[in-house]
Write a structure and sequence with these properties.
The chain is of the alpha+beta class and 208 residues long. It has helices at 33-46, 79-88, 108-127, 144-156, 181-191; strands at 4-8, 12-18, 21-29, 52-59, 65-69, 94-101, 129-142, 160-166, 170-176, 197-207. Strands 1, 7, 8, 9 and 10 form a 5-stranded antiparallel sheet that branches. It has a 5-stranded antiparallel sheet with strand order 2-3-6-4-5, with helices on both faces. A hairpin with a 3-residue loop joins strand 8 (160-166) and strand 9 (170-176). The relative contact order is 0.18. InterPro entries: EFG_III/V (IPR035647), Impact (IPR023582), Impact_N (IPR001498), Impact_N_sf (IPR036956), Impact_YigZ-like (IPR015796), Ribosomal_Su5_D2-typ_SF (IPR020568), UPF0029_Impact_C (IPR015269), UPF0029_Impact_CS (IPR020569). Residues 20-124 form the Impact N-terminal domain. Belongs to the IMPACT family. Residues 140-194 form the UPF0029 domain. This is YigZ family protein.
């Protein structure tokens, strides 16, 4: 698995105008290919009279799924430059749809490539990107007496507390970089006098 990846910070739209043609780039995070396809369908529905709704998406931290469509523009002049912009910026789990309203002036193949790729690049700059880092999920189980202090110490140390469940004991779910696991295990034993249980879970990605 990749140690980290970048994706768009939020869903949004950025518009540019080139030779009287309007280019609206809609960007969104997408966890799965189905989410990406649903977003493309939604944008197409919002712009039924547009000349073209071209798209590109990259799914997977390792960019395993990559798709692009020119939607009627000359082959290779829209979807591919959009996809190239996403991969050049190391973007993952992201979908881009560029909606074009033709303004009466032909741009030529080179102009289209620059327009579609540029629309995605400008939208990424406008909406911003975030880095997600790989970490291990882990659970700490501790008695009620020590739980409050452990939670405070975790937050003070900048650890991500993902969930807290109260039962006979208190179960705290956290995220840890792989490199920190051994040191954390020792720290936990110190602050709880060895009374806490520590269990490693699977892997996930979170904000870096």
């Amino acid at each position: 698995m990749q140690d980290e990846y970048r994706t768009v910070a939020r869903e949004g739209v950025h518009e540019t105008e080139i030779n009287r043609s309007r280019f609206l780039c809609a960007l969104a995070p997408a966890a799965t290919e189905r989410e990406a396809q649903d977003f493309v369908a939604r944008v197409r529905k919002e712009h039924p009279t547009a000349s073209h709704n071209c798209f590109a998406y990259v799914i997977g931290a390792d960019a395993a799924v990559q798709k692009a469509s020119d939607d009627g523009e000359p082959g290779g002049t829209a979807g591919v430059p959009m996809l190239q912009m996403l991969t050049r910026r190391d973007m993952r789990y992201v979908v881009a749809v560029v909606t074009r309203y033709y303004g009466g002036v032909k741009l030529g193949a080179g102009g289209l490539i620059r327009a579609y790729g540029g629309a995605v690049g400008e939208a990424l700059d406008a909406l911003g990107t975030v880095t997600r880092r790989r970490f291990r999920l882990a659970t700490v189980t501790v008695d009620h007496q020590r739980a409050g202090r452990v939670q405070n110490d975790l937050r003070t140390a900048g650890r991500e507390v993902r969930d807290v469940r109260y039962g006979d004991a208190v179960t705290i779910e956290i995220g840890l970089p792989d490199a920190d696991v051994d040191a954390f295990r020792g720290w936990l034993a110190d602050v709880t006098a060895g009374a806490a249980e520590f269990e490693l879970g699977g892997e996930a990605y979170g904000d870096a």
